[in-house]
What does this fold into?
Amino acid sequence: MMVTMGDIAQKMGVSKSTVSLALNNSPKVSAVTREKVLATAEELGYHTNPYVSALMASRRHGKNPPKIPVIALVTATENEEDRNTFYHLKRFVEGCSDVAERLGIRPEFFWLGDENMSARRLNDIFINRGICGAVLMPQGVWGEKLDHKWHEVATVIFGARNLAATTDWISADFYGNMEKTLDILLAQNMNQIGFVMDKPFPYTRDNRWLAAYLMKQNQKQIKPLKPWLDPEPNFESFSTWFEAEQPGGIICVHPPPR
It folds into this structure.
């Protein structure tokens, strides 16, 4: 949840105007009060909104307010709602939106799955609308549509390093995420943890999930249960594994349907 000046004021027992003046380094408040406000703001995790700051400054000087900057969130899904079928994509979009809004940037979602849409056309739309930044997310059946020499738009790819060699790339920390998940379970006194994954899937991520799981076993932090990595997964195979290993809990990565 975003921390506001009202939260700082309530925490300190002062007025919002005092907090505002202190954050803007006004001589109307004492140095001692200013330091206390800044310390409380840091403690609560307060961040200024650049757009709001610029808007207020424009109003004070009688100028037209600036336009809210927009960042494009682009996916290769067939329609806008398809992004909700990818859990990690949905969470990533939520995270992007939260951070963007805290920075005074408005996120806007675009998708390329429509047969009449192309990356070239979308690039032109961005330029015409003054959108200077985009996050490209290749989830969906139209990922190849994102392979485009984007121009006049700063782009970064999430999740597919080989999509475009000239574009910056970011990805989830699969090894670290698995370590964190296992640590959470260990903190709950659970160490008989099973690991289930569609076998072909981990090799697209260099076995990072499996590597972290096996390392925890090697360090004797969890019991050495055999991972279930069936090349042709089905419920009967899973049931046989479950009866043999008797896990107290199961971590599933890309689990097959029953």
User: Anything to note?
Assistant: The chain has a mean pLDDT of 80.
